[in-house]
Design brief:
The protein has 129 residues and is an alpha+beta fold. Helices cover 27% and strands 25% of the residues. One of its GO terms (cellular component) is plasma membrane.
Length: 129
Amino acid sequence: MGEGRGTANSSSVIAMILLVLCMFVFHPKMIHAETYTVGDDKGWSFGVQNWPSGKTFKEGDILVFNYTPVIHSVVTVKEFGYNSCFPFGGSGFHISGADKITLVKGMNYFICGTPGHCSQGQKIAVNAI
């Protein structure tokens, strides 16, 4: 009887180890994801368009946009929306004041949806590798 218990426990341990290894193999982006606060201490505000400079972002990294929701918003847009400061047709409109957005591979574009704010530099373009 003692042998049976040891075998069952060994099998359970091996199964648990395999499960954990599978999690590392199939979800590597989540394991290595970094979280960045857009604008650092300044937050999501005017003049943040150069904030991504010098940083290396990866697919799965998380951007945190901190701002006053009555004044600002975050709109996920395509390149046209970024260049033209046109918020309509974007894939996401966020208004919580503490938005967490996961980067997808390639270019990610964000603007403030409040009229005039994007043209005053409240926009960022982030390339995730």
